[in-house]
Write a structure and sequence with these properties.
alpha+beta; GMP Synthetase, Chain A, domain 3; 3 strands; elongated; ribosomal small subunit binding
């Protein structure tokens, strides 16, 4: 299977998963979620959906639990919208790169403040 096809499917899953999470999930546990990336296997049998979660640790845990529960629904909805012989198995992974960036930014600001006070 061509790499271009895999990339198109990954982008499609990213867009559709984002729409479904944002507009269709009715679970009150699910807070602010951003789908950052999708990695599908070359044979398109499975795909990892990377998500960034916002909020307190409690809110993130609640959102994560809601996403895990909605996994089957999201897969079936994507299956209805995608033109493939089968729908990839989906799994969610936390993308903590945004949290990491925020921490780095906070450290840089702290260093600047300390240098200014010396």
């Amino acid at each position: 299977m061509g790499q271009l096809r895999v990339e198109k499917v990954q982008e499609f899953i990213k867009q559709e998963a984002s729409k479904i999470i944002l507009n269709e999930l009715k679970d009150p546990r699910i807070g602010f979620v951003t789908v950052t990336q999708v990695e599908a296997t070359g044979d398109l049998h499975s795909a990892k959906i990377y998500v960034s979660l916002m909020g307190s640790d409690e809110q993130k845990a609640s959102t994560w639990a809601g996403l895990q529960k909605a996994q089957g629904y999201i897969r079936s909805e994507i299956g209805k919208r995608i033109r493939l012989r089968f729908t990839p198995e989906l799994s969610f992974e936390l993308d903590e790169s945004l949290d990491y960036s925020v921490k780095i930014q906070e450290l840089l600001i702290k260093i600047k403040e300390e240098e200014a006070n010396q």
